[in-house]
């Protein structure tokens, strides 16, 4: 493989990184909306049953090369970050 | 917000999860190709300069709601998983 080909692969990786970034942030905004709705209903934001369902769906659609366990680990980090975002919103709401 | 609206938001989150899954796996395949090329060139697979460049580009394009530090943490997990994938390929190559 030439350096030009290697460079092309790296550019593709950068594009994918930015697409993932966009989706994670879009997901963050949706989860903020969900958090507000649950807050209004007085429901707890953390929902382990819903988290399990999301992970099962991911596992079901996984065609590799990553193992289910690796993807589960990455997605749990994404879920945790979103939960922290909801908690920040909750704290801000309390301070108003 | 009605339960139907909440359900619609959740469905959207599930769609985004599956899009992220697809991109992470696509990224994994590209990184495997890059790993093979670097292996052929006798270059080390882990490249902290390249990793820093990827993180800088992500930071540059981040429009929130997530903080740069949160995204950096998530992406480092994605990078780590890809590196482990390359290492598995390397071990398999040695066993052939």
Give a structural overview.
2 copies of one chain form a homodimer. Chain A has helices at about 5-40, 50-60, 70-95. In chain A, helix 2 (about 50-60) packs antiparallel against helix 3. Chain A is built from 3 helices and no strands. The longest helix of chain A has about 40 residues, at about 5-40. With about 100 residues, chain A is mainly alpha-helical. Chain A has one domain (about 5-95): Chorismate mutase (Chorismate Mutase Domain, subunit A, Up-down Bundle), CATH 1.20.59. The radius of gyration of chain A is 17 Å and the shape is elongated. Chain A is about 85% helix and about 0% strand. The model of chain A has no long low-confidence stretch (mean pLDDT about 95). At the A-B interface, helix 1, helix 2 and helix 3 of A face helix 1, helix 2 and helix 3 of B.
State the gist of this model.
The structure is a homodimer of 96-residue chains. The first copy, chain A, has 96 residues and is mainly α.
Topology, element by element:
2 copies of one chain form a homodimer.
Chain A: H1 3-41, H2 48-60, H3 68-95
Helix pairs in contact in A: 1-3, 2-3
């Amino acid at each position: 493989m030439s350096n030009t080909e290697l460079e092309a692969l790296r550019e593709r990786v950068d594009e994918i990184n930015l697409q993932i970034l966009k989706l994670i942030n879009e997901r963050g905004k949706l989860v903020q909306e969900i958090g507000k709705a649950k807050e209004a209903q007085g429901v707890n934001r953390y929902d382990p049953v819903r988290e399990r369902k999301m992970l099962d769906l991911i596992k079901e659609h996984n065609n590799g090369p990553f193992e289910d366990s690796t993807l589960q680990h990455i997605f749990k980090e994404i879920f945790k970050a979103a939960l922290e975002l909801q908690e920040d919103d909750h704290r801000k709401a309390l301070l108003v």
